[in-house]
Specification:
mainly alpha, Rna Polymerase Sigma Factor, Chain: A, Arc Repressor Mutant, subunit A, 10 helices, 74% helix, 0% strand
Length: 187
Amino acid sequence: MDDSGEAQTDEALMAKVARGDEVAFRLLSRRHLPAMLGLARRILGNAADAEDVAQEAMLRVWIHAPRWQPLAAVRTWLTRVVVNLCLDRKRRAPWVALEAAGEIVDPTPGAAEVAEQSGRERALAAAIAELPARQRTAIVLTYTEGMSNAQVAEVLDTSVSAIETLLIRGKQNLRARLRDLIEGEES
């Protein structure tokens, strides 16, 4: 509650946090930390990692509050932060004890591997270049730039379902153009 006894909105608390108000930060944390911790536990399946993620998310609230824009609800933004942190953590390779790791292998690819990879990349680039413009754009924005279908739809001024159709057709066309290369790797 604020000085007048009324409950403060998340947005009002974020504005105070942006000005360095620790009391507002603690109130916002008490309000959202349990739900964010539960979300992280469900995604990660590990309580210790979930606590680390939830704490990191709240640290980001404190650090990024001055730049936060009320384009989405605080809870929505915080949920996105937690999900991204969880996904980043799941992508990381698990820690292995040095003794269990075995012999260290030089990860540098050999000349043959480099040439083969380079050839595949050139073939893929040529096949992508041959796609119709909208399919090519959808493929590049999604798979090279890492944009979501919704973001690509916004860029191309179309619907998400239209982007999904472009991606399906683009991948079918790429598969057809690269069939010899794909079949050669499978055998």
